[in-house]
Specification:
With about 475 residues, the chain is mainly beta. The chain has one helix and 38 strands. The strands form nine sheets. Strands 29, 30, 31, 34, 35, 36, 37 and 38 form an eight-stranded mixed sheet that branches. A four-stranded antiparallel sheet has the order 1-28-27-26, with no helix packed on it. The longest helix has 16 residues.
């Protein structure tokens, strides 16, 4: 596995946060509940985007409509800034995975293709987009995943318009991975760093989970809970996540080593779910849908907390509806699709949901009255030198904002369109104090405060306050 050069910075911020939470805090701010910032992923000029995967550098890939919604192109987001990866000369495409080296795979179209045709591609900054090919000339193909060695997996037609077959691309060579029954189809969805490939293969047209071993042999994992089984993701510990058609559709977790299998949701005849990704920490993400109301909700699951709907993890006063979670990296950063206040049912925006780490305390503004001088304090710093400048930020809505000079994989603010109310320096008493008059227009308004030290990417807790 490729080492993330930002890992030291992330661990440093987390360590500071842990020290604060093990100390006695007068505000009672330490909690086991994770805290997140939610940042919007801008489009390529169109009205919507669909993020699919995120790597350990917090780079995200998927697709986005271009200006005028004329075409949908593969897109790459770095620090939430989108890049159009283009196509193979045709009208459409979508990226499905990215490794830590920035190699992207997906589907595109060639000149003369329709928007529905599939042509597997690989993209890197040095090579641009290249066509990976298919088992036979002119057949369709699609690349679903790529590991750190640059080995990609997906499907190719075995004949024009014929059955799909699971394939692997290595060193510009395509390899047919085979199937469980002659004449039946198969599909590879993911590959881990040990070259285990997970996917689906048919026996008598029934979908079964299939595992291809590094030596090329295929193993039938069966039909989980008696339903057709789609195994979408595998991590380096051979933990697998996916979807079974049992009772309309259920997300599942399966541990190949221990043979443990878990239905990720409580049985319900109206709720269906699917898990699309699993990281090396055993956290899975996906989507659940209410069949009666058609309400969609993204979720994250692990052994300790079970299935947690992402909307329950939003910052206060947040207008995001997080409708689907598609990817999660080893740092717990999640990407998916949601909508915001004013969006229609079919409208959607990509999001990055990133864990944040509070390492010092912020108090309420006192006396908490508009048209008067108020004081707000930041304190309980850890290893922050006297004289360090603290920025006191505010917003009227929770969400997320980038910290200038800080990578999003390290920390982020939990407020939208953060504005600076003022700055103060840490004094000899270990306190930074901002004093100023609150405008009369703030009377009756609810404000969210959060403080930040940009140089070290440290942030405070959130303070939600309504001024009298």
């Amino acid at each position: 596995m490729r080492v993330n050069p930002r890992r030291h910075n992330i661990c440093q911020v987390r360590l500071v946060a842990m020290v604060v939470c093990t100390a006695t805090s007068p505000l009672g701010l330490c909690t086991e509940k994770p805290q997140y910032a939610i940042l919007e992923l801008p489009t390529l000029g169109g009205t919507g985007s669909v993020p699919i995967a995120i790597n350990n550098e917090a780079a995200i890939v998927g697709s986005s409509w271009t200006t005028g919604d004329s075409e949908s192109h593969p897109a790459l987001w770095n620090d939430t800034v989108p890049l159009d990866l283009g196509t193979l000369g045709g009208p459409a495409g979508k990226a499905f995975d990215i490794n830590d080296a920035g190699v992207v795979v997906g589907r595109s179209t060639l000149p003369g293709d329709s928007v529905l045709d599939d042509r597997a591609f690989l993209w890197s900054e040095s090579t641009g987009m290249i066509y990976l090919g298919a088992l036979i000339e002119h057949a369709e193909s699609l690349a679903e995943a790529v590991n750190e060695a640059g080995t990609a997996v997906g499907y190719s037609e075995s004949s024009l318009g014929g059955d799909r077959q699971a394939v692997l691309w290595r060193d510009s060579t395509i390899i047919n991975l085979g199937n469980l029954q002659e004449g039946q189809s198969s599909y590879a969805y993911d590959i881990n760093e040990k070259d285990y490939v997970i996917g689906t293969a048919n026996i008598h047209s029934a979908k079964r989970a299939a595992l291809w071993h590094p030596d090329g042999t295929i193993e039938d994992l069966g039909e989980f809970f008696g339903g057709g089984t789609y195994a979408y993701a595998i991590n380096d510990r051979l933990e697998i996540a996916g979807h079974t058609t049992y009772i309309g559709g259920r997300a599942f977790y399966y541990n190949y080593i221990t043979d443990e299998i878990i239905n990720l949701q409580e049985d319900s005849f109206t709720i269906t779910s699917a898990a699309y990704d699993i990281n090396n920490m055993g956290q899975a993400v996906g989507k659940r849908t209410d069949g009666w109301t058609m309400k969609e909700e993204g979720f994250v699951w692990d052994h300790e907390h079970g299935m947690v709907v992402l909307n329950r993890l939003r910052p206060p006063n947040c207008d995001w509806r997080l409708r689907s979670a598609r990817g999660i990296n080893d740092f717990g950063q999640i990407t998916g699709r949601g909508s915001r206040t004013g969006d229609g049912y079919w409208d959607g925006s990509g999001f990055l949901m990133t864990p944040v780490y509070h390492s010092f305390d912020l108090t309420y503004a006192r006396p908490g009255k508009a048209d008067e001088v108020n004081t707000i304090r930041a304190a309980n710093f850890v290893n922050v030198p006297v004289g360090t400048t603290v920025y006191f930020c505010y917003s009227f809505r929770g969400g997320g904002s980038l910290i200038p000079g800080c990578d999003v994989s390290i920390n982020a603010l939990q407020i939208d369109n953060a504005k600076v109310a003022g700055t103060a320096t840490v004094g000899e008493n270990g306190v930074a104090k901002l004093v100023g008059k609150v405008p009369p227009s703030m009377h009756g308004r609810q404000v969210i405060f959060q403080a930040v030290i940009p140089g070290s990417c440290e942030i405070s807790n959130l303070v939600v306050q309504r001024f009298e």
